[in-house]
């Protein structure tokens, strides 16, 4: 796998043919579709907070999860990875969709979903078949692929551990879209293999009880903090007035 990843590192000339159409990318990927918006600025702010943390501790691999489905973790992960790719042109950035139950990175970016991580773990393909560069960026993407019969077993496998180890050695920053925490054990398994986790919380939707339960279920994984998603502009009056000027 080490040699395959090294060859896959030459992904830069390889652009997914399905990427690049403005209509293919989900409009919520504001770092591309609306880079001057207040929402895009919030993702940049989040990224530079992580940068400050990197001055104090190793933070190469960041996982993003949520307590429950539908809180916006995938959109957050994609925007964060794209901001990273634009902020540091000399760094190798990788986005991994590790939600093998309901992977959405391919749909959000408008790219091909297969082969993906599931096919790699099942032995149906090699690493070099997975890594592709997203259009007009230096960001590499590995999609989730098809849903396996036993996603938790696949993510807990020795092959997954080896894959993450190799990824660490070949990329400077890795952003992993994890499954929601409460319904499945997947995030608890992978969370301990990251350098830090972000918990996405949807404003006025996610009960505090659910967030606390999710933190408990992660079993001591390194949680960096929470990302409040879906807050109305009226909830942040300073930003609202500033953007209008």
From TrEMBL:
Residue intervals of the AAA domain: 62-203
Keyword Signal: no
GO molecular function: kinase activity
Protein name: CpsD/CapB family tyrosine-protein kinase
Lineage: Bacteria, Pseudomonadati, Myxococcota, Myxococcia, Myxococcales
Keyword Nucleotide-binding attached: yes
Alphabetic keyword roster: ATP-binding, Kinase, Nucleotide-binding, Transferase, Tyrosine-protein kinase
InterPro entries for this protein: AAA_dom (IPR025669), Bact_polysacc_biosynth/exp (IPR050445), P-loop_NTPase (IPR027417), Wzc-like_C (IPR005702)
Organism: Archangium lansingense
């Amino acid at each position: 796998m080490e040699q395959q990843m090294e060859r896959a590192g030459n992904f830069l000339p390889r652009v997914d043919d399905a990427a690049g159409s403005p209509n293919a990318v989900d409009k919520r990927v504001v770092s591309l579709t609306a880079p001057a918006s207040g929402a895009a600025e919030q993702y940049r702010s989040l990224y530079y907070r992580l940068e400050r943390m990197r001055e104090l501790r190793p933070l190469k691999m960041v996982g993003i999860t949520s307590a429950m489905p539908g809180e916006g973790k995938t959109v957050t992960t994609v925007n964060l990875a794209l901001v990273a790719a634009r902020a540091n042109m000399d760094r190798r950035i990788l986005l991994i969709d590790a939600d093998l139950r309901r992977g959405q990175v391919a749909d959000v970016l408008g790219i091909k979903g297969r082969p993906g991580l599931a096919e790699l773990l099942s032995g149906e393909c090699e690493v070099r078949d997975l890594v592709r560069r997203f259009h007009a960026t230096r960001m590499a993407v590995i999609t989730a692929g098809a849903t396996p019969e036993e996603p938790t077993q696949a993510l807990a496998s020795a092959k997954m551990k080896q894959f993450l180890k190799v990824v660490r050695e070949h990329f400077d920053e890795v952003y992993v879209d994890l499954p929601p925490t409460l319904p499945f054990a997947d995030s608890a398994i992978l969370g301990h293999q990251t350098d830090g986790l972000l918990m996405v919380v949807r404003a006025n939707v996610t009960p505090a009880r659910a967030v606390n339960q999710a933190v408990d279920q992660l079993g001591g994984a390194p949680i960096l903090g929470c990302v409040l998603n879906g807050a109305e502009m009226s909830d942040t009056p300073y930003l609202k007035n500033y953007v209008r000027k």
